[in-house]
């Protein structure tokens, strides 16, 4: 690697050109994807049934905030674009809430596992995310 | 516990101090509530006592300082009616959640799972108290995180 010697201009494979092989995926990447998928589910449900929007939108916002905070900790920018929302058919509100509770409960378990396995500097954030998901289940009751 | 003044023991000692304060606060809160809310306050107080007792046992096994309870605590504002009692209940749970959250980086294995369970329980009670008080939204994005 050339670091600016007299005959080596900073072009091509230099310090700022990071086109080497991609780094290993971070252990938190699945949690980011899950947070964005949960956000999309809540947004779709709120759109399909505006009567639920008041309850569901703050939870969608929380999942988005979790994804952004996880990305910050991982230290990589988010890919552009938002994930595709799930099928936008409009089942009965009870079925929607039941399905969201199930997804949220699963997400809570995943975040708790990630918290248990995380290095110290990530434990607090993951703990807050796991606790938040538990409160989302409660808020859907 | 291998580090008596910093790290795990200190973080858990802080959680214990927060549990003492929560137990004391629920004594004040409960008298201003009735029916289901009073029952919920009693259950919350019992849950905090149980966390306190577990922490006392755990900290007694180490060589660090085990903080003692105080005779009383300063209230952040007068608690005179149902509304102020519910507001304090939410704040006490969020505050205690914060201390358990702060213990997470200092723990591993079973101790971390205990701290996470305690953080989650506090967050759940805060959410239920917000619902009882008619506060929306009933959730916060990052339970226990300092504002």
Automatic annotation (TrEMBL), chain A:
Residues 1-28 are annotated as: Disordered. Residues 17-27 have a biased composition (Acidic residues). It comes from the Bacteria. This is DUF4439 domain-containing protein.
Automatic annotation (TrEMBL), chain B:
It comes from the Bacteria. InterPro entries: DUF4439, Ferritin-like, Ferritin-like_SF. Gene3D superfamilies: 1.20.1260.10. Pfam families: DUF4439. This is DUF4439 domain-containing protein.
């Amino acid at each position: 690697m050339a670091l600016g010697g007299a005959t080596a201009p900073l072009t091509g494979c230099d310090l700022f050109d990071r086109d080497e092989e991609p780094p290993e995926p971070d252990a938190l990447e699945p949690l980011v994807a899950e947070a964005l998928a949960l956000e999309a589910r809540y947004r779709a449900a709120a759109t399909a049934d505006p009567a639920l929007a008041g309850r569901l939108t703050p939870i969608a916002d929380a999942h988005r905030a979790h994804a952004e905070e996880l990305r910050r900790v991982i230290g990589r920018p988010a890919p552009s674009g938002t994930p595709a929302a799930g099928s936008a058919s409009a089942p009965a509100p009870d079925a929607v809430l039941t399905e969201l509770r199930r997804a949220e409960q699963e997400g809570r378990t995943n975040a708790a596992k990630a918290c248990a396995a995380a290095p110290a500097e990530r434990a607090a954030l993951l703990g807050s995310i796991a606790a938040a998901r538990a409160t989302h289940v409660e808020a859907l009751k | 516990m291998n580090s008596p003044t910093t790290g795990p023991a200190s973080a858990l000692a802080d959680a214990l101090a927060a549990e003492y304060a929560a137990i004391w606060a629920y004594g004040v809160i409960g008298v201003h509530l009735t029916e289901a809310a009073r029952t919920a306050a009693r259950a919350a107080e019992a849950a905090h006592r149980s966390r306190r007792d577990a922490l006392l046992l755990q900290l007694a096994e180490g060589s660090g300082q085990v903080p003692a309870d105080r005779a009383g605590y300063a209230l952040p504002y007068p608690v005179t009616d149902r509304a102020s009692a519910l507001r304090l209940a939410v704040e006490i749970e969020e505050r205690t959640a914060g201390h358990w959250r702060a213990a997470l980086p200092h723990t591993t294995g079973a101790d971390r799972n205990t701290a996470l369970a305690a953080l989650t329980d506090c967050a759940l009670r805060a959410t239920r108290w917000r619902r009882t008080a008619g506060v929306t939204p009933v959730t916060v994005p990052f339970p226990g995180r300092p504002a």
